[in-house]
Specification:
The complex is a heterodimer of chains A (about 250) and B (about 600).
Chain A: H1 6-13, H2 21-24, H3 29-32, H4 36-44, H5 55-68, H6 78-81, H7 83-92, H8 122-140, H9 149-160, E1 165-166, E2 169-170, H10 171-187, H11 199-204
Antiparallel strand pairs in A: 1-2
Helix pairs in contact in A: 7-10, 8-10, 9-10
Chain B: E1 3-4, E2 8-13, H1 17-28, E3 33-37, H2 44-47, H3 56-61, E4 74-77, E5 85-86, H4 115-118, H5 120-128, H6 146-160, E6 168-169, E7 172-173, H7 197-208, E8 214-215, E9 225-226, E10 232-233, H8 255-258, H9 260-264, E11 269-273, E12 276-282, E13 289-295, E14 301-311, H10 315-325, E15 348-355, E16 373-375, E17 394-398, H11 420-429, E18 433-440, E19 449-457, E20 463-468, H12 473-492, E21 497-501, E22 544-546, H13 561-579
Parallel strand pairs in B: 1-14, 2-3, 2-14, 3-11, 4-20, 14-22
Antiparallel strand pairs in B: 4-5, 6-7, 8-16, 9-10, 12-13, 13-14, 15-18, 15-21, 16-17, 17-18, 19-20
Helix pairs in contact in B: 1-13, 6-13, 7-12
The chains are: A mainly alpha (about 250), B alpha/beta (about 600).
């Protein structure tokens, strides 16, 4: 399998649309209030080593995720938060292989009320859909990562509305999984490889795994100020990524 | 090769809330009891520990504590004319598995139903006349009354240590409590939990409109408590990881914290985990159970003979157990004949979101599973339904339980689903929004039912349960009516924007609503319209008792657990004082 690091990827395609947001943005007020050791952690994040997505897929995933959750004045977007890394590790692990998914046939398309009914595991769904998208855009002449942000949004909206048939996968099904997993990667504990440095939690003021509000709960209307806490922090505040936590007890 | 084991007095299928309470009582009364639990053994220590338990991805999104749907799914369709397909991932409702059952991941919201609910068909006819209801609605009386159950509600609440404020003690209305509640014999065991900001805002607004707000009865305790079993519970610290999680603080009343250690210390009881019961075995008359057949975790098949079998699994699994065992006549919606699977109902959940300016700081992540404030003014039959064309209602409450951001990031209607507009709205509203929950009743209806699926099998080769369900028009009307009332409360709180989201059809399994599945083995007065009699004894096989929310003939406006606890102690009373002294039918058919 091809492995593409973030650095090599950025070097390859240039900085026009997909440079990691943290590299460009000044720290926001909330990020600036973080403890120095943790703020420094942003720069110390290793480049993403892709284990699941191939080189072509990485180009689409990084660009698409950043359109779904873009960097803006409120803070980093999907790239800065490591969402593509989260997707890569989840899809390459047990979840991608169909963990917690009932996989017996027979198979048929159901009503919208009946939910997901394709035989694909999430990993298979991503590979199949991304291959079809690549072929579609090849025919049109411009790869997704080469489009303007506006054109990328138009293409993503077409996927969302189900306008494309991705080799049998309704594009709305793929888009729904991509968006759901991007939001997961953005807001889940950084132990899974997204939400780097808890940027998404800082942005909204969620304290993470911290869990004692007995004294605070009846101080009504007073903002709760605290460094967010990860499940996997060591004594130095460093978060160790363990993306293979099983989805059962 | 089936191994036949030594006969015992009682087999309990499922060691969750009901199973652990029943087993504890019968073992203490001297009977040899075996508890068969399909999931694994688990306790507060070492399994439910922080910080690992505070993992939204693992527990909320990946459903770590839930029934293994890859081995034991259900199928679903809205209408009988459709092909039911497997629910390939849990979403709409979340049955638990493992020792302690679904109660391990509950919210602790501990309500009683009202006297009216237990005689719903009779009271509706009396108040609104015969032709009031849609003829497809199949509501019926329970066969027990509130007065029958009151002592058992009381016992259950004192087992849990429920934190609340009484509204009616022996007919005397109590300030600060729910004036609509049916009379209780005494105050709650512990005072209400601290009120969060949303609750306080709601209380003020609801009062200003003339409603009657009261603190949510919570089994996440407000203070340390020792229950009548001698179990010690702690005060809840409002961690915001309650429903879908297990509690590491010993502050949520669940079997592990309120009764299991007492049960497990009794040598009359034997717990076997990893045991998947295949069926209740009947003798050649089909009128007498001889025990159960189960397969253990390594695949060995056993027959466990017993004099009495109690199935106390999650509601939908109770239905399936009877269908797989051939106990009771399966319901046929075409003819209306048969009872098992009949009157499957749910809960009609709506929401209202109130968006405030950024100077109103909510801190949504500070909450217990039941630390809200609510009103019952539009619940049940607490308001006049004349001319409205529906029965039932919903409690309306600021009962938000968490701020876990993968699931909780409210945005106003019209916000894009993604992109810069979405992100800005999430950041802007996360800490400045109050969500109301409208917890609506659910009438039973002729076309909503459960049976065995003709196609899909579980991991043991047995047919899975097929659910056919859509929201009855009665409940859609109810949701619209109550949502309009709740929107007025949002406005009275001074919110900048209030968005009502009344439940609409069709019912979908793709969106979480609630794990309050009811019916399918309903209790009642007649074997023609019920599976079990008023003591939860099978009409067809008198040495089988079925205990679960599957007993509810329809669902009321409140969370079902308090009533299930009351029914459990009610059935135990009948078992100990009537059935076991003289086994046989407790009610003649």
């Amino acid at each position: 399998m091809d492995k593409v690091t973030r650095r090599s990827f950025v070097t390859t395609v240039g900085a026009a649309t997909v440079v990691p947001a943290t590299a460009l943005l000044p720290l926001t007020a909330s990020a600036a209030s973080a403890a120095p050791a943790k703020t420094a952690g942003i720069a110390e994040q290793p480049d993403t080593t892709y284990l699941f997505f191939n080189a072509a897929e990485v180009l689409f995933i990084e660009a698409a995720c950043e359109r779904l959750i873009p960097a803006d004045e409120s803070g980093p977007g999907a790239l800065g938060a490591g969402v593509p890394n989260y997707l890569d590790k989840q899809l390459g692990g047990a979840w991608g292989a169909g963990e917690r998914l009932y996989r017996s046939g027979p198979w048929q398309a159901g009503t919208p009320s009946q939910g997901y009914q394709l035989p694909f595991t999430p990993a298979e769904l991503f590979h199949a859909s991304l291959r079809a998208i690549d072929r579609d855009l090849d025919a049109q002449g411009t790869p997704f990562h080469g489009m303007s942000p506006e054109a990328q949004d138009v293409y993503l909206k077409a996927l969302e509305s189900g306008a494309h048939d991705l080799d049998g996968v309704p594009s709305a099904v793929f888009f729904d999984m991509l968006l759901k997993m991007s939001i997961e990667g953005f807001f889940s504990d950084p132990v899974y490889g997204g939400n780097r440095n808890m940027v998404a939690w800082r942005m909204i003021g969620f304290p993470g795994a911290y869990a004692d509000y007995y004294e605070a709960i009846d101080r009504h209307g007073v903002k709760f100020e605290r460094e967010p806490m990860s499940l996997a922090e060591d004594a130095h505040g460093h978060v160790h990524v363990r993306q293979d936590i099983p989805a059962n007890l | 090769m089936v191994q036949r084991l030594k006969e015992v007095d009682v087999v309990v299928i499922g060691v969750g809330m009901v199973g652990s309470i029943v087993a504890k009582e019968l073992a203490a009364a001297g009977y040899k009891v075996v508890g068969l639990e399909r999931g694994q053994t688990r306790f507060t220590v070492p399994e439910f520990q922080s910080p690992a338990i505070h993992d939204e991805l693992r527990f909320d999104i990946r459903k770590a504590l839930m029934q293994d749907n890859t081995r034991e799914p259900v199928t679903f369709r809205n209408q009988g004319s459709q092909v039911a397909l497997p629910v390939r991932r849990w979403e709409s409702f979340l049955p638990g598995t493992g020792l302690g059952g679904s109660m391990v991941h509950w919210n602790g919201q501990t309500y009683r139903f009202q006297a009216n609910d237990f005689q719903l068909a009779t009271r509706t006819r009396e108040r609104y006349g015969k032709g009031f209801l849609d003829p497809d609605v199949t509501i019926q009386d329970w066969g027990v009354t509130y007065d029958d159950l009151e002592p058992h509600y009381d016992r259950f609440e004192y087992l849990l240590g429920t934190s609340g404020k009484a509204g009616n003690i022996k007919g005397q209305i109590q300030a600060g409590g729910d004036p609509h509640e049916s009379p209780r014999s005494r105050e709650y065991p512990t005072p209400p939990q601290k009120e969060h900001f949303q609750g306080a805002m709601f209380r003020k607004a609801a009062s200003s409109l003339g409603y009657h707000p009261f603190p949510q009865p919570s089994s996440n305790l407000s203070q340390p408590y020792t229950n009548p079993e001698g179990m010690k519970l702690n005060a809840c610290v409002f961690c915001g990881f309650c429903e879908r999680y297990a509690c590491e603080h010993y502050a949520k009343s669940v079997p592990q914290t309120m009764i299991l250690p007492v049960l497990l210390a009794n040598p009359n009881f034997e717990l076997r985990t990893g045991c998947q019961v295949q069926r209740i075995n009947l003798d050649s008359t089909k009128k007498h159970a001889t025990g159960v057949t189960y397969i253990d975790a390594v695949g060995r098949e056993f027959e466990q003979p017993a004099s009495l079998v109690i199935t106390s699994t999650f509601a939908i699994n109770n239905i399936r157990m009877l269908l797989l065992s051939g106990i009771g006549k399966p319901y046929d919606p075409a003819t209306g004949q048969g009872v098992v699977g009949r009157n499957y109902a749910y809960q009609t959940m709506s929401t209202v979101a109130s968006f405030f300016d950024e100077d109103v700081i909510i801190n949504p992540f500070m909450a217990s599973g039941a630390s809200g404030t609510l009103i019952n003014d539009f619940a049940g039959d607490n308001f006049d339904h004349s001319g409205l064309g529906f029965i039932g209602g919903a409690f309306i409450g600021a009962v938000n339980t968490n701020g876990r951001p993968i699931q909780y990031h409210p945005v106003p209607p019209g916000t894009p689903n993604w992109g810069k507009g979405w992100k800005q709205a999430v950041v802007k509203h996360y800490n400045h929004t109050i969500m109301f929950s409208l917890h609506g009743s659910s009438v039973s209806q002729r076309r909503n039912y459960c049976d065995l699926d003709p196609t899909y099998k579980d991991a043991w080769g047995q047919p899975v349960l097929r659910i056919t369900f859509d929201f009855p028009p009665n409940d859609i009307k109810m949701a619209a009516h109550v949502t309009a009332k709740a929107v007025e409360i949002g406005k009275a709180m001074g919110a900048k924007q209030v968005a009502g989201n009344p439940r609409k059809g069709p019912y979908t399994v793709t969106q979480y609503q609630t794990t309050h599945n009811t019916g399918g083995t309903v209790m009642g007065d007649s074997p023609k319209t019920s599976v079990v009699n008023r003591y939860l004894q099978s009409w067809d096989v008198p040495n089988v008792f079925v205990i679960g929310a599957s007993n509810y003939p329809q669902n009321a406006s409140w969370n079902p657990t308090g009533t299930l606890g009351a029914l459990t102690y009610w059935a135990i009373d009948a078992l100990k004082n009537k059935y076991l002294k003289n086994p046989g039918r407790l009610v003649s058919a």
